[in-house]
Amino acid sequence: MRRDYFESDILKSIRSEKLDDTLSLAREFSLQYMNEIHDRNVYPQAEDIQNLDYFHEDLADQPEKTEAILEILNRYGSAGTVAQTGGRYFGFVNGGILPASLGAKWLGDTWDQNAALYVISPVASKLEVVCEKWTKDVLNLPAETGIGFVGGSSTATLCGLTAGRNYLLNNLGYDASKQGLFNAPEINVVVGEAAHSTVFKALSIIGLGGERVIRVPCDDQGRMKVDELPEIDHKTLIILQAGNVNTGAFDDFESICSLANEKKAWVHVDGAFGLWALASSKMEHATKGLQLADSWSTDGHKTLNAPYDNGLILCRHKDVLVEAMHMTGSYIIYSEHRDGMLFTPEMSRRARSIELWATFKSLGKRGVAELVDELHEKAKYFADIVSNEGLDVLNDVVFNQVLIHFRDDIKTEELIKRVQTSGVFWAGGASWLGKKVMRISVCSYKTSYEDIEISAKEIIRITKEIGS
Ligand SMILES: *Cc1c(COP(=O)(O)O)cnc(C)c1O
């Protein structure tokens, strides 16, 4: 009778494959990649990028063998990667990946868990509970804080601002989750003029308008000028930052959060890479008052060196976050165990808590603090070397960011271009205070003092080549 039902030859053959061979090959290619990471160009060569065209093909009708798939990926894909798991990638604000985090991710990928509900994956649920507790512990955040595990800070900010919007409107007797914004009372959104683009994106998605904001002027480090704040009241959503994406600067949380708390405003902090500074007592000058906010967004995949797709939304008012993310009724029913989807916009999700847990476990509390301290020290070292050679460092190096300017905009752009094709290290460009800058972001545990020296020397060599 079974013969009457369809069975795919393709799937039959895939079912008979030996996973042993597949994973061994993946392991072999991965180790090869990591063993060469220090000697290869940090950015793919033009030829490697050209070779990525190999992937441009129509999907064949016939299946490909698993071994061949991995070989293609290794040959063409690997060469087209940016070597950010080495020590000399300083572009954007990225991060490295700790060995334990990588190993845990491999194992977790084999499990392929769905972190939506406890009943779908008890282990994912348990590790979310633990990661929530450890994160609060490491960052010294209030015990009542609830945390959702999302893909990154963009989503986390979206969640935090939605929670803030609903909270303020609820206090005005209006339920935005149920009624939408059509007849909602107006609330004011206050952002610094140096806010990250993802803040405006989130505001536009949640109906508050990316441009209908009060922009507060900032000082030369990108910090909101406190004496230029508009009137703050219970209808105000304030967005601050812990770590300006260019300068790394931190807003004056103590002044602004105290005022906001007193007036019952909501403060969200974009702490994509800077929130982890709370882990270090040496960073207290920058983080003072940061715990007084209502919600915070951060990434595990930047300065903490967890793998990608690791964002966290932290909210002091746990129920407000859950209510905003969980549209099933007027009150929440928490089950006996943690159901991760209550805290996030998504339902089915990767169990990212697996590698986040491994990251924390690998570093320990002291390790997180020392990671923060090292990134800071190495950024200062980088800045010291280049400024001793006569280049301008345009920011106060308060954390891991260094903005370098060489003579004028044209020369700085030339410097960036030559750095990017050198293969020695990689850094991006940005504009700061109307000047072109090369932005160095020290984000990886892998970066050694030697890597800093090699990279800084390359800058000096190129500037001599360009001449004055
Ligand atoms: C990277 C970054 C973001 C966006 O985070 P994603 O994880 O890329 O979504 C937001 N704000 C700041 C300051 C950032 O550095």
UniProtKB/TrEMBL annotation:
GO terms for biological process, alphabetical: carboxylic acid metabolic process
Keyword terms of this UniProt record: Aminotransferase, Decarboxylase, Lyase, Pyridoxal phosphate, Transferase
Example GO molecular function: pyridoxal phosphate binding
Keyword Lyase: yes
InterPro entries linked to this entry: Aromatic_deC (IPR010977), PyrdxlP-dep_de-COase (IPR002129), PyrdxlP-dep_Trfase (IPR015424), PyrdxlP-dep_Trfase_major (IPR015421), PyrdxlP-dep_Trfase_small (IPR015422)
Family to which the UniProt record says this protein belongs: Belongs to the group II decarboxylase family.
Name of the molecule in the record: Aspartate aminotransferase family protein
Organism encoding this protein: Falsibacillus albus
Record lineage: Bacteria, Bacillati, Bacillota, Bacilli, Bacillales
